What we know:
The protein is mainly α. It has two domains: 2-181 and 288-317, 3-Layer(aba) Sandwich (Rossmann fold); 202-282, Tyrosyl-Transfer RNA Synthetase (Orthogonal Bundle). 56% of the residues lie in helices and 7% in strands. It contains 13 helices and five strands. The protein has helices spanning 15-28, 40-43, 50-66, 84-93, 98-102, 105-113, 119-134, 147-164, 204-212, 231-239, 242-254, 259-285, 290-317; strands spanning 2-7, 33-38, 75-78, 139-141, 172-174. The two termini are 31 Å apart. Bound molecules: adenosine-5'-diphosphate (ADP) and tryptophan (TRP).
Amino acid sequence: xxxxSGIQPSxxxxxxxxxxxxKPVLELQDPGEPFIFxxxxxxxxxxxxxxxxxxxxxxxxxDLLACGLEPERGAFYRQSDIxxxxxxxxxxxxxxxxxxxxxxxxxxxxxxxxxxxxxGLFAYPLLMTADILAVQAEVVPxxxxxxxxxxxxxxxxxxxxxxxxELFTIPKPLIRDDAALVPGIDGQKMSKSYNNTIEIFGDSTxxxxxxxxxxxxxxxxxxxxxxDENTIFALxxxxxxxDQSKAMAERFRAGGTGYGDAKKELHExxxxxxxxxxxxxxxxxxxxxxxxxxxxxxxxxxREEVSKTLRRVRQAMGL
Length: 319
Ligand code: ADP
Ligand code: TRP
């Protein structure tokens, strides 16, 4: 089964990325074939410093490998090493109604707020469509924020197939109910752009500080609390066993458990989840050429697949 997902190297990896996208990929990588990439073309819609983007792309590669991605099972690559993706984007743009892109939240939200958007941001979902269709991906693990983009990809694939013959696999999103929208420490969606993240590879002190800053209401220790309206519990469930989660929910409901203590317990479990990943990252850092070798191999493999698809698309469209 061909699995594909991408992540923008536009900041530090956080728990939302881990539970929303990375963990589902890891769970499918055996026996699946994961094509995972660093979406640095996409990151250009917000990044303006070349040196910073290059460094963040390298760091994000290291982060994903430290999380347990096994590149030899599929391909792990930088999007920009496959320039054919931009050609496919252009070809697909000719079967893409304007309205489809105008309806996308990422673009519409800016328009509503009167913030000027560039064409990169407008065409962003189309480049994503090219990423997915170019390797004939069957399953795309993502967080809920990407759902609409997956619908665009499916619409365009169907429209193309209708016009030119059954060329593209219709991709299916994989959005896990339990981690579709991991909240940040302010209760909104955890996101690199909102400054509300718990970083996976932050040091132990910064992780603790972020957890201690989780926003709560002002209920006293004694008062009963609703676990379902509580960011601490939402995060706790991701790192705890079912039994631990049940026990914590009961303690909240019964009263007598304060937010401070719950945060400490959450911190312990987050640390236990992150610690082995940090260790792996340190080991990977010992071989400075490793990342480049992995990305070069990944690019070669992905480029072969993308070129195969592109040749068929060009042929079908009369080029
Ligand atoms: P960010 O919003 O922090 O910039 P990205 O847009 O690069 O993150 O997302 C990379 C992947 O992680 C996507 O599949 C996205 O859906 C997923 N993801 C990001 N934030 C969350 C979250 N808070 N909950 C669940 N999944 C998330
Ligand atoms: N837009 C995605 C994000 O910000 C990253 C991405 C780019 C992606 N291309 C993709 C995700 C293709 C899944 C499939 O999270």
